[in-house]
Target: Pentraxin family member
Amino acid sequence: MVAQEDLYRKVFVFRKDPSDAYVVLRAKLEQPLQNFTVCLRSYTDLTRPYSLFSYATKAQDNEILLFKPKPGEYRFYVGGRFVTFRVPQSIAESEHVCASWESATGIVGFWFNGKPWPRKGLQRGYTVGPAPSWHCGTGGDHKPSGDNKAPAFLGGLGWASMRAAYQSLRLPPAVMAWKSLSYEVKGDVVVKPRLREALGP
Model:
């Protein structure tokens, strides 16, 4: 069943491990993407590989994929190819991650807990296909090509924003807004307030 609600300061909680649970995000996108930014906040004690966000089309499973193969490392895929960002290792700590890509230059920007990492190049001139399937917290078929099926995320996962001070790009209006998100839950996932809000001031 598709739901639409304001999820500001709320998270999806994936409760079981191992899990095949995920959330399908609903957004109309009929034109190819020339650039994009995705920002997420996650909270987990997992040390195994997992996917946080995927954008798949009929032609390409990994049009966009944010994947964490192990603590201290993120892989960001565009069109089936990826760049790696190494970050401080942390377990059971909240992590805020933003990744951006633009076709004209192939530049990938990456921010970890508000701090920019050195930019890298990936798929210059590539166009991300339209009519996507957007998933978050997914194991499913949305995994790096050639890898074994990655179990789904376990823990709390929420959309996040990027402060303008941390980036030099002017971003277009959001395709998916957390304050009016249309989504469908698959498996054992519940919506809860972020821990900070649940505990009070």
Notes: DSSP finds one helix and 16 strands in the chain. Residues 163-173, 197-201 have pLDDT under 50 and may be disordered. Residues 29 and 169 are 21 Å apart (CA to CA).
